[in-house]
Design goal:
3 helices; mainly alpha; single chain
């Protein structure tokens, strides 16, 4: 993780985010200034925003599929 070594050798995928966060924490006058860097690092580690976005997309996809199934039979032609 923050050691810089990846699981399969080389640099870890989140190492650049860790270094940016670490540098910010050492140079910034307040910790609040480093919140974006921390957020990037945490997203890289845990993918919370990515997972939430994927869940919203899947929910919308299900909703549209249900509408298509339920809304297709309502046009009974009175002749």
């Amino acid at each position: 993780m923050s050691s810089g070594f990846g699981a399969f050798g080389g640099v870890g995928r989140c190492y650049k985010f860790w270094m940016a966060f670490k540098e910010c924490m050492s140079e910034a006058p307040t910790k609040e200034m480093c919140l974006p860097a921390r957020e990037d690092y945490m997203e890289c580690l845990h993918h919370n925003k990515e997972i939430a976005r994927r869940n919203r997309i899947e929910e919308q996809r299900r909703h549209l599929a249900e509408e298509a199934r339920g809304g297709g039979g309502g046009g009974g032609g009175g002749g």
